[in-house]
Amino acid sequence: MIRHLLLLALIPFAVACAGREPADFAGKEPRLLPEQFFAGPTRGWGMIEDRFGGVLSQFTVELNGRWDGQALILDEDFVYDSGRTQKRQWSLVKTGPATYEGRAADVPGVAIGTIAGNTFNLRYPLEIPRGEGTLTVDVDDWLFLQPGGVAINRAALSKFGVGVGEITLFIQRPAAK
Question: I need a labelling partner for 39 at 20 to 30 A (CA). Which of 9, 91, 100, 138 fits?
């Protein structure tokens, strides 16, 4: 009986781990290539939610990317509704036709990226400010390019496999002049 209860208790964790994979989006259009989408300036609007869906913060982000032939260098400048600002610079190296490795100052280790169809998935540890120190969470970051050039970004944050928050971000290229 106890074994059956234990198995039932583990089902939600097994289901959560069996989520989407980049290959699920292989045929979706428009095709997303991060080095093309993020070339030059883009702008985003987003929010951070806690694990219960409460909005912790809203923000805007100005992004500027450049492709050097091997890596996408992506500068991000965040402004939060609290007035706090944050800068991050990503270096996303293309390691294969559909794979990337990313690095940033607040990413201990390496981010692993995969593209398929209209989707870019990036998984990485992230150090986030907490009190006087930082807390490292795991990020499962998904970018979905939509017709018209808008991208929807959804990132799930977890610690020890337990969801602790989500980030939703809409990214748009500036209108052509």
Answer: 138
pLDDT band at 19 (very low <50, low <70, confident <90, very high): confident
The token duo for 156 is 């799930």
pLDDT digits (tens, 9 = 90+) for 46-64: 999 999 999 999 999 999 9
Residue 1 has pLDDT above 60, yes or no: no
Q: Identify the three-state secondary structure at position 38.
A: coil
Q: Which amino acid is at 40?
A: G
Q: For the whole model, what pTM was predicted?
A: 0.86
**Does the pLDDT value for residue 16 go beyond 80?**
no
**Nearest Cα to Cα of residue 143 among 127, 167, 108, 110:** 167
- CATH number listed for the domain at residues 29-172: 2.40.128.20
Alpha carbon separation from 1 to 4, 78, 89, 95 (Å, rounded):
5, 52, 52, 49
Domain ranges of the chain: 29-172
